Amino acid sequence: AATLPEVIQEMLLTTTSERQGRAIDHDQAASMEKKKQEGYF
């Protein structure tokens, strides 16, 4: 989407989360906290 109306239309038509394809969101439940402790962020 290149314009605001296109972004809005894309958001209205999208049925999956933008984060759904991220590998970091598919590992164990506390992985984000573990990565923070390890200095990943």
Shape estimate: elongated
- Beta-sheet strand percentage? under 5%
Order of helices and strands: HH
Radius of gyration from the CA trace?
Answer: 15 Å
Tell me about the largest β-sheet.
none
Query: How many angstroms separate the termini?
Result: 29 Å
- How would you state the average pLDDT, rounded? 79
Q: Based on helices, strands and strand pairing, what is the structural class? A: mainly alpha
Itemize the secondary structure elements and their pairings.
Blueprint lengths: L3 H10 L17 H7 L4
Structure description:
This protein is mostly helical. The protein has one domain. 41% of the residues lie in helices and 0% in strands. The chain is built from two helices and no strands. The protein has helices at residues 4-13, 31-37. The protein is elongated. It starts with a helix and ends with a helix.
Quick summary:
The chain has 41 residues and is an all-alpha fold. It has helices at residues 4-13, 31-37.
List keywords for this structure.
mainly alpha; 41 residues; 2 helices
